[in-house]
Amino acid sequence: FASLCPLSGAARGPGWGEFCRYRLNAGGIQDKDGLLRAVKELERRGLHASTTALTGGDAPAWFARKWHSRDPQGDLLAWDLCQAVQLVQYGYAAGLLSAGEALEIERRCAARAQGQFPDYDSYLDGWLMGLDVQLDGDARETEGYPQLAQLCLALNGPDAGFAAAWTTSLEGLPQAPGPSGPPPWIAPAAAALLSAMLLAALTALSAVL
Question: I need a labelling partner for 72 at 20 to 30 A (CA). Which of 11, 63, 105, 136 fits?
Fold first, then answer.
């Protein structure tokens, strides 16, 4: 679970922080205010609020066949929440956010994800739908899809080791680590926040598909 936690970047050394600053700068994010604006925009709009072309008779035939039983505007929130969490992780590693600020945003994303999706499977499907929209095509036809499919199975399979139920309470989680670094509660905290962070790792992978 530590790899899905916003504090995980601290263990990757200064090079990771520099990489995260580069990624944020490449996206036009130069400071904390810019990062917070980007996160709020993903929460408020993102793909889930701009999908009119994917509804009704305007949807491409392949998209309609693949996702006929899903609600694009509702399900695409999974993609947006993962993007928001990815930015938070970058922001913490780059020194723009404190640990407490990062965890609080992820707590907010987790609560929204729990309210929108009934389980991990539904959340994963929403993220995969977002990948299709981002690629403007069926992700199954990309060169990297076999590796992505294996990762999805590993994350969502019965042996994945996710100890937290989708409905795990988010109340009472610690707000920030102690002065000596990540504390012992980091794994359970990450598990409880998993509803928002489960697919954050996939977000980075989608960039290379």
Answer: 105
